[in-house]
């Protein structure tokens, strides 16, 4: 039975230090939001209390989706691995949440949930297939084929951040060297900018040279203000990402690629070099069949996506 129009869902995104939660109606519109510091030791009771409060304000909440920074097995509902959530939190999380609230829970990897949100409500809306890339502290990705998340043999499909861009490059957390993440994630944009500021005296004219602790956001801000050095760094970062995007196009011939995450807040300054580099490197007929778009849901992508996963898992 399809959900009734008055039914609502809760989406929750967990990260290392905080949680974002929202009540989302069946159309994918947020009607209430909450943010809190994550209590890793008492996560189940924290989430149960939050769900209780949200249910007091909205009737007809049917299920809860939780986006998790880690690998989730959707068949067993187990959180198999997570860098940010301690093992004690992961064990039995799904069952404990059901028992504590009496509601149905769907757990999913955070990049997958964000992809699903963009697919259903954001920049991917109306399509059939989508590749989603999120570029922030790390680089994640997800694949949606024929309207469904395609997660691969063991849940790890779409890890575009670990495509090799530079065989001689920096060591990556994954053990490889020169992954896309080692040049284009937010901390690595800052690292490359610092290296260049130290090496190249002309770049010391940049305002960034006066700020020892600048972030990738600061760099994007200076680029928007017209700072030549920051513009160059953003453009080069876009070229790296575009190189990865070209590989995705050649591999999947996919109709739409949506790019989100904090680094994409640089807007067209980064999107344009991504598209140009993808065009330069991808097989032309395949490039022409692909729309490359900026995500539209911003920081809400994973919470909305988790809620939509909770909605749609109840239909089948
Ligand atoms: Zn890697």
Report on the structure:
Helix 4 crosses helix 11. This protein is 39% helix and 22% strand. With 316 residues, the protein is of the alpha/beta class. The chain has eleven helices and twelve strands. The protein has helices spanning 43-57, 87-90, 93-101, 110-120, 181-184, 186-199, 216-224, 228-252, 268-281, 284-288, 301-313, and strands at 8-14, 18-25, 30-37, 61-68, 71-73, 78-81, 104-109, 130-135, 139-145, 148-149, 256-260, 291-294. The strands form three sheets. The protein has a five-stranded mixed β-sheet, with helices on both faces. It has a five-stranded mixed β-sheet with strand order 10-9-8-11-12, with helices on one face. A two-stranded antiparallel ribbon has the order 5-6. Bound molecules: zinc ion. Zinc ion (ZN) is lined by residues 162, 172, 174, 176, 179, 181.
């Amino acid at each position: 039975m399809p959900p009734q129009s008055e039914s609502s869902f809760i989406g929750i995104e967990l990260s290392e230090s905080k949680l974002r939660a929202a009540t989302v109606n069946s159309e994918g519109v947020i009607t209430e939001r909450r943010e809190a510091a994550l209590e890793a030791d008492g996560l189940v009771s924290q989430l149960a209390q939050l769900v209780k409060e949200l249910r007091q304000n909205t009737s007809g909440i049917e299920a809860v989706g939780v986006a998790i920074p880690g690998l989730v097995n959707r068949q067993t509902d187990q959180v198999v691995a997570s860098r940010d959530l301690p093992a004690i939190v992961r064990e039995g999380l799904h069952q404990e949440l059901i028992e504590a609230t009496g509601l149905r829970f769907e757990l999913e990897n955070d990049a997958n949930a964000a992809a699903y949100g963009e697919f259903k409500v954001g920049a991917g809306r109306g399509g059939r297939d989508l590749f989603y890339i999120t570029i922030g502290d790390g680089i994640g990705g997800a694949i949606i084929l024929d309207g469904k998340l395609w997660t691969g043999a063991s849940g790890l499909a779409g890890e575009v951040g670990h495509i090799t861009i530079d065989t001689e490059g920096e060591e990556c957390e994954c053990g490889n060297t020169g992954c896309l993440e080692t040049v284009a994630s937010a901390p690595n944009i800052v690292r490359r900018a610092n290296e260049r500021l130290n090496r190249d005296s002309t770049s010391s004219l940049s305002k960034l040279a006066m700020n020892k602790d600048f972030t990738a956001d600061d760099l994007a801000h200076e680029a928007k203000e017209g700072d030549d050095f920051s513009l160059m760094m953003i453009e080069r970062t876009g070229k790296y990402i575009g190189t990865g995007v070209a590989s995705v196009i050649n591999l999947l011939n996919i109709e739409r690629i949506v790019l989100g995450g904090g680094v994409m807040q640089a807007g067209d300054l980064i999107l344009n070099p991504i598209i140009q580099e993808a065009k330069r490197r991808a097989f032309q007929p395949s490039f022409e069949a692909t729309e490359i778009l900026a995500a539209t849901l911003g920081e809400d992508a994973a919470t909305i996506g988790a809620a939509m996963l909770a909605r749609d898992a109840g239909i089948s």
